[in-house]
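Figure 2 data, in text form.
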Amino acid sequence: MSQQLHSVHRASPRAFGRPRRPPALTDVHARLYASQPALCQRPTSVAEVIHALQRAQRRGLAVAVAGGRHAMGGQQFLAGGCVLDMRGLSGIRAFDRERGLLTVGAGTMWPELMRGYLALQGGAPR
């Protein structure tokens, strides 16, 4: 199944003179509980994470970190808060073959991690 962020589209509030809000978000499987965040950010660097956190702080918003979006209760979307979509920070950063340690970005999903690990091992298990 695709690991995509699902949104529930609603009529744009811009027609009423208000700024556009991010679409409502829901999990990738059950799609039971749509949540409406006030702000949704997808950082691609540590500097962008810091900027997003500062922006949320200035607006007085609580912050939720969304990874794989598998929780079916909508917790990862924090209605009315700031959602940090960490998928922009994915990938294997380092591999210590001797110790068998991988360092990965916060948005790395299991399939990507396993493909990368096997590629680094030359396809052979350790």
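Caption note: The chain has two domains: 6-88, 90-126.
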